[in-house]
Amino acid sequence: MKMRSVKKSMGIISAISLLICIVFSVYAIHNNLFTSIEALQEYLAGFGALSALVFIAFQAVQVVIPILPGGLGCLAGVLFFGPWFGFLYNYLGICIGSLAAFAIARTLGKPVIHALFNEKLITKYESWTNKESQFAKWFAIAIFFPVAPDDFLCYLAGTTTLSWNKFTAIILLGKPFSITLYSLGLNVILQTIASSVL
């Protein structure tokens, strides 16, 4: 009885979290926060000392509601907070969002995946779950490299038997490399473009 009550509470929390993320995403789209680094920087500056916490929440929402790849947010973090704090805040936000996506999918199941992602993407990666003993290996490899659809894979992982402990370990250990490539790599590209224009 107690376990059923916990599952029901988790379901309510997951649904509310998803709803909050959707509402914020609508606001962010309306204010160009997902498409303009300048708009995002101006938005964050308005929070003063709390800007780091707001940015971490922003990055988490970008994982839960995968409207755009997180590259823009990673670059904004580096530009706004510098390379080291930018990396740290990117890492915290993306890890929190990844855990939230896993929790939502673990609670609400496959229907949430079909609601958020296109069928072509689902079909491409769903075969990974056919041999669940191999899923953790492929998931870890995908998380380590910044080319796979990490947001989707975190949701997909939530529909498998992958344990919370293993999922958390993969995220915490695998994310630093890909975030570093995004954060610092995009910053180098931007500086190169800026210097060539000037």
UniProtKB/TrEMBL annotation:
It holds the Pfam family VTT_dom. It is found in: Cell membrane. It comes from the Bacteria. The chain crosses the membrane at residues 44-61, 91-117, 138-158, 170-190. It is a multi-pass membrane protein. The keyword Transmembrane applies. Residues 75-184 form the VTT domain. GO terms for cellular component: plasma membrane. Keywords: Cell membrane, Membrane, Transmembrane, Transmembrane helix. Belongs to the TVP38/TMEM64 family. This is TVP38/TMEM64 family membrane protein.
